[in-house]
Amino acid sequence: MARVRLIDENDAVEHSDLIRKIKGARGGRLINIYRLMMHSPSLASAWFDLNQAVRYGTEIDGQSREIAVIRVAVLNDVEYVLRAHGPAYALKEGLTPPQVEALADWQKSDLFSGKQRALLAYTDAITREIDVPDAVFDEIRTHFTERQMVELTLLISAYNMLTRFLKALKVDPEPATATS
User: Fold this and answer.
1) What are phi and psi for residue 78, nearest 5 degrees?
2) Residues 112-166: pLDDT tens digits?
3) Could you tell me the pTM of the whole model?
4) Each residue of 51-64: pLDDT tens digit?
């Protein structure tokens, strides 16, 4: 159960435009992330815009995006994101169920390409160490453009922020039909 009360959209009618915008991108639902963030509508709006941009306004392919997001959730042990991205988004982007499962221990898996392995190492370094070793950076930059490197770094960093927010406030995962 969340440590902070989730806002019911009927209790935030003064922010109905923002709620309508969020629901439009989330299958018609005000999901728990935003029900919590609605305690601060300006931050909810800013997060929504940032999240939409890092997920859908980049040159990053969908498989790379989902690999990074899920790996951050694995490292930070956040069930909310794992439930939403593992079954829903990752499979839609063409990752296989065995690949999604292998993200927890990717170093021992042969299911990932060189590009994907470089991305996983980069995601691990940003999430665990913050200061990315030169060798890890040099490897990933052979697979992505400078623009994509900026976009990937922002994506990984944004999901580190989100997973820490969800973990600290113990936000419950959505029911099986919802996605984040």
Assistant:
1) -120, 100
2) 999 999 999 999 999 999 999 999 999 999 999 999 999 999 999 999 999 999 9
3) 0.93
4) 999 999 999 999 99
Q: Which amino acid is located at 16 in the chain?
A: S
Instruction: Give dist(CA 10, CA 16) in Å, integer.
Output: 9
DSSP the chain: --SSPPPPGGG-GGGHHHHHHHHHHTTT---HHHHHHTTSHHHHHHHHHHHHHHHHSSS--HHHHHHHHHHHHHHTT-HHHHHHIIIIIIHHTT--HHHHHHGGGGGG-S-S-HHHHHHHHHHHIIIIISS--HHHHHHHTTTS-HHHHHHHHHHHHHHHHHHHHHHHTTPPPPPTT---
